[in-house]
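sry for the spam today, last one i promise. struct tokens for design, 173 residues
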């Protein structure tokens, strides 16, 4: 297994739209294992392939307390979203040190392939629902800060650019 490098906002590669995975083969299995290792090492609950500069529709997640229940979604497709939405505090491994509120659907239904290439239907609420919506945005080239006001977003951009120049993580805006 290998630790992968996570792209940081405002890197323009984060705005690439991912293409479907065509075959769930050994290459994808290795990528899944490496993405899970990278996510666990970074203390995240999710990671989209976009964040490691692979532009294919692949997400790994683990919202379990024991960090021992990985969930892999390949070619996820949103089937249904509840009309009810709530504001949730979000962070992102590509936007280190920044947390802010984003409105997300409470409940969702998603169809995807699992790591064995089997079709699965997932109904999610709570943190899993928020995490899937956040990661599916990454696959569409969208970063959570794009839901914030232009003023906040520009402040975050400047803070992260400054922090990167100085080789440190930004403080909350
Ligand atoms: O960068 C990422 O896409 C991972 C991200 C996923 C996420 C989960 C939940 C809400 C927003 C984004 C994170 O892992 S953020 C860091 C984190 O560990 C966390 C954030 C919020 C709640 C619980 C955990
Ligand atoms: Zn993210």
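last one done:
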């Amino acid at each position: 297994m290998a630790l992968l490098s996570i792209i940081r906002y405002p890197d323009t590669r984060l705005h690439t739209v991912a293409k479907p995975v065509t075959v769930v083969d050994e290459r994808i299995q290795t990528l899944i294992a490496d993405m899970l290792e990278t996510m666990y090492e970074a203390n995240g609950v999710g990671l989209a392939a976009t964040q490691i500069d692979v532009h294919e529709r692949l997400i790994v997640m683990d919202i379990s307390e024991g960090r021992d229940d990985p969930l892999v979604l390949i070619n996820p497709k949103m089937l249904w979203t509840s009309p009810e939405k709530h504001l949730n505090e979000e962070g992102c491994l590509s936007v280190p040190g920044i947390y802010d509120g984003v409105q997300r659907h409470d409940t969702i239904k998603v169809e995807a392939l699992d790591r064995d290439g089997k079709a699965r239907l997932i109904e999610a609420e709570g943190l899993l629902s928020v995490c899937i919506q956040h990661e599916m945005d990454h696959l569409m080239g969208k970063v959570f800060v794009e839901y914030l006001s232009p003023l906040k977003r520009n402040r975050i951009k400047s803070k992260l650019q400054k922090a990167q120049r100085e080789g440190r993580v930004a403080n909350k805006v």
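Residues 26-41 form the longest helix (16 residues). ok im logging off now
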